[in-house]
């Protein structure tokens, strides 16, 4: 089963747009859990544009399911994580000018600090994941840095799938994720996915080998406007796990039993 982590950042975005106290992201987390969410994800950005410190503290105190705390790899944020001790921390890149996270961490250089941060969090019993591009090389580096999981950035995949005009072309994009996931698994890393996944493409995660978790926010919160949050969560979990939505191997000559 692929676990579903529901990102509630955009509930906070809506609240902050009018400077109100509603909608409450902590309440949203409860409704997501009611719909079957396996964990809750939130990103405390340095500029506090959506989730705020008080939100994270309340989530940590009240959630009956694990909290996946997304943060930039800075001393401030790692310090906050060390105080809160969430179930998991996912280290992500962050730029002030971006609308949302645009890609995975750059693991090509200067990773000694990240390695030390990972170890300090692990010493506190926190499960640590790195948000990375679907690169086989990045999986090797993440393993050497001591990460316990990787979250594959699926943003480029989602955009490419929206432009695909044939099943053969679509499977070509899927194979990039498959190869990265297989490499992560071979290095002993849990495989997570996230970013840009929605109700038209999430079913493809069923053919990503060893995928254990998908973290999805914007699409679920948008869908909840029409059907309610518990139902939106249930629908997404079905896409991730129900074989009725499993892409058929018979539709493409590109999919083989090997992803090497």
Describe this protein's structure.
With 260 residues, this protein is α/β, with parallel strands linked by helices. It has a single domain, classed as Aldolase class I (TIM Barrel). 43% of the residues lie in helices and 17% in strands. Strands 1-2-3-4-5-6-7-8 form an eight-stranded parallel barrel, surrounded by nine helices. Helix 6 packs parallel to helix 8 (167-186) and helix 9 (218-227) packs across helix 10.
Any idea what the shape is? globular
Structural class: alpha/beta
Please describe the biggest sheet, giving its number of strands, its sense, and whether it closes into a barrel: 8 strands, parallel, barrel
Q: Name the CATH class.
A: Alpha Beta
**Number of E-state strands:** 8
Q: Please provide the ordered H/E string of secondary-structure elements.
A: EHHEHEHEHEHEHHEEHH
* Annotated CATH homologous superfamily: Aldolase class I
Number of contiguous helices: 10
* Low-pLDDT runs: 250-260
Strand line-up in the sheet with most strands: 1-2-3-4-5-6-7-8
- CATH T-level fold name: TIM Barrel
Task: Kindly provide the radius of gyration, computed on alpha-carbon positions and rounded to a whole number of angstroms.
Answer: 18 Å
Mean pLDDT across the residues is 93
CATH architecture: Alpha-Beta Barrel
Briefly characterize the structure.
By secondary structure, the protein is of the alpha/beta class. The protein is 43% helix and 17% strand.
